[in-house]
Write a structure and sequence with these properties.
Layout lengths: L3 H15 L4 E6 L5 E3 L2 H8 L4 E7 L2 E6 L3 E6 L4 E6 L8 E7 L4 E6 L5 E6 L22 H9 L5 H6 L9 H11 L12 H20 L40 E5 L2 E5 L6
Parallel strand pairs: 2-9
Antiparallel strand pairs: 1-7, 3-4, 4-5, 5-9, 6-8, 7-8, 10-11
Helix pairs in contact: 1-6, 3-6, 5-6
């Protein structure tokens, strides 16, 4: 699933192609991903709208439209938004937004699990969006808040990192990477971390998110940015996707277990 760095990379690469453009037409090939309003009302209400801004909150993309409308897109497992200017239809194109300059914004999705909501600004109909925690970015995730979020929970530390109401935007990849950098086992109880450990984990979270954005996201299979390009962060991962391979730091074999319901890679020597 695209996480904060991937969605932010999509936002940054889409923005130059979209801002100030008017939606000239909407053609929906798979309607079940339109969650609000109905399929016909969605297309009618969106047609003619100008895209004033493109924002991100956690893993959600927010299209700020004129007329006080907001289009909220959640890519889920395999969704992508790609701009084409040559008339090409990308693989698994599910929704085609024709823009006023003749280009097309395609929503593509292999598994069709993504969701799109068109609503009035200020509405809170998108489950999970209103309850998101702070962003794991410099200046937005305060150390005292982060330490408190860990101390008041008896779940695993990885479970806290994945909890979008605690911290917005972290998923499986960046949770595993942050825990490795901090030297903390993913299955440790969150409230067992000392002050020094929680400070180190705070630093690690910011570091892996920043690295992911700098490298335009992590691509293993489906993820592409708004220009259809793959990310390169997979070339810089310490543990995620490296089960049974030697640790890059100590040489021990990277092990695999399930934590917080998710497959988890960690180094049994470097993480305690």
């Amino acid at each position: 699933m695209p996480e904060l760095p991937e969605v932010e990379s999509i936002r940054r690469t889409l923005a130059p192609h979209l801002l100030g453009r008017r939606v000239a037409a909407v053609k929906i090939h798979v309607g079940r991903m339109i969650k609000h309003p109905g399929e016909e009302a969605f297309a009618a209400a969106l047609t003619g709208r100008v895209i004033n801004n493109l924002l991100r909150r956690g893993k959600y993309l927010l299209f700020d439209l004129d007329g006080d409308k907001l289009l909220v897109v959640h890519l889920r497992m395999t969704g992508a938004l790609i701009v084409t200017t040559n008339g090409d239809v990308p693989d698994y194109g599910r929704i085609d937004f024709t823009l006023s300059d003749g280009s097309h914004l395609w929503y593509t999705d292999v598994r069709t699990l993504g969701t799109l909501h068109l609503m009035d600004k200020g509405e809170t109909i998108v489950k999970g969006l209103a309850s998101l925690g702070p962003e794991p970015l410099e200046g937005q995730l305060a150390v005292p808040y982060f330490q408190s979020a860990l101390k008041k929970r008896k779940s695993t530390v990885k479970g806290v990192l994945l909890d979008q109401s605690a911290i917005a935007g972290i998923g499986n990849i960046y949770a595993d990477e942050a825990l490795f950098l901090a030297g903390i086992r993913p299955d440790r109880r969150a409230d067992s971390l000392g002050i020094d450990e929680s400070e180190k984990l705070h630093w690690a979270v910011l570091a892996v998110i920043a690295q992911g954005i700098e490298n335009r996201g992590t691509t293993f299979r489906d993820y592409k940015d708004g220009e259809g390009k793959k990310g390169s962060n997979q070339e810089h991962l310490w543990v995620y996707g490296r089960s049974k391979q030697p640790c890059k730091k100590c040489g021990a074999v990277i092990e695999y277990m399930r934590v917080a319901g998710r497959g988890t890679a960690y180094c049994p020597h470097c993480q305690v």
